[in-house]
Amino acid sequence: MTPRPESIRIETLTAEPATLDALSDLLVETVAHGGSVSFMHPLAPAEARAFWEAALTAAARGERMVLGAWADGALLSTVTLLLDCPPNQPHRAELAKMMTAPGARGRGLALTLLREAERLAQAHGRTLLVLDTASDGGAAGLYERAGYTFAGEIPDYALKPHGGLTGTRLYYKRLPTAP
Question: Which domains are assigned to the chain?
Fold first, then answer.
């Protein structure tokens, strides 16, 4: 059952214990279902939690923003906006760790998070967003529907969570200057 749009809550996540649990569970589930998000299957819950603890610590320092989409008390989707770029790239940000629970896909959660990440990037003075997604089973269709431009593909870029190599597809999107 698809939740009504008003039942979806988008928020910037912080290192609360329940949030860390939900993020860790989502990461473990994503990897188990073949999501290429830097980890191999089986992913230990403690390793997933350590990743999110570090990510949310970096967020507390202003280096990134971790966004989440919640419905009925469950974290269903997340994306990270990386803001900590080199001094010669203050206009740029990167999107990473886009994940939606397998049972919640097709509801528009990822697109909603993507639009919020774009809004926040603009609010931080960013005019260029970049990202990469796995060639096999990645979210290329989502990014193309959202107006991202395909820049190229690197073959054999990373291991898939269950083994074997996959390429990565590189995308970018120019953002207007925030009003």
Answer: 7-127 (3.40.630.30)
Q: Is the pTM of this model over 0.90?
A: yes
Contact 24, 49 (CB under 8 A): yes
- What tokens appear for 131 in the block? 């990202």
Q: Partners of 146 in the beta sheet?
A: none
Per-residue tokens: 91: 């206009």
Measure the CA–CA gap between 167 and 73, rounded to whole angstroms: 35
pLDDT digits (tens, 9 = 90+) for 51-100: 999 999 999 999 999 999 999 899 999 999 999 999 999 999 999 999 99
Predicted confidence at residue 2, as pLDDT, reads 46
- 38 neighbors 27 (Cβ within 8 angstroms): no
